Amino acid sequence: MTVVETEPHSPASASVPNSSRPSAPTFNAPLPSLPIVEGSRPQPAPRPKSLMNWDWLGVLPFFLFAILFLIGPILYLVKGSFQNPAGDFTLENFISLATPNIMAAYSLSLRLSLAAACLGAIAGLLVGYAIILGGLPRWVRTAFMTFSGVASNFAGIPLAFAFIATLGRLGLVTVLLRDMFGFNLYGTGFSLFSFWGLAITYLYFQLPLMVLIITPALDGLKGEWREAAEILGATRRQYWQMVALPVLTPSILGCFLLLFANAFGTLVTVYALTGSSFGVVPIVLYQQIQGNVLYNPNLGYALAVGMVAIMAVTNTLYLILRSRAERWQK
Length: 330
Known about the structure:
The chain is mostly helical. Helix content is 62%, strand content 0%. The radius of gyration is 38 Å and the shape is globular. The chain has a single domain (92-329), classed as MetI-like (MetI-like fold).
């Protein structure tokens, strides 16, 4: 008897037509993403914390400069102002600040600085308005801003000699006014070496400085504010009175204080023009430290401390006003 071996029967080998066989399932759909369990993936080893933050290295020159040329000298002045020539503690130097000569020097310096700051603020604001909001060509603004950056740092002996050659008794402008128009400038009582002569000289570097620092505030006046005012029926005068000037007031006052501080500490320009005949505080201080007759360094240190106090108050007020002005520039 012959045994015929057959393969085991399976559904896949059944005699079913190809067209009716079910096709194998395909899995083309993306697999759902499984949540990553924390700790299942190896984490890089944490970097050891450096004992020194190297980011501070970039500002190290600034701190060194401030310590050597700002903080150190101020501490030295304060220490010397409370000492007598023998090195003993005394308050005599500050009591001497109330003498008529020194009080007159402070009064003259304050009045001159206020006058120069007023002239610079008004003239600089008008010039800034003309070149920023006046519709002048773009190249005029670029040229004037470049000039302002240079002129605001032009002071001292070169500035004094430049004004002597221009507005002195035989200066170019004085001679032209006399010969071409018959106008004697010095016949009116004007003198370059007087109070208002110094104020006009200060104007040369005060005006460009005002333009430089008021420009961002003028640029901060948004066109939407003017359009909204016009839609509400406001005139040009009402827009400036109720919108623009209230926004610009902190910036203008801050610029005025900065100009005041800039004029208050000026020494070389006034000394080159008038010598020691115009007794502002910097000249009186110079006489106390370097003079042969009024030599009293400790009194000079007290004068310097008084100037530092005035400048500190001025700069503090300026920072407060600037913080208020920056609210509208955001």
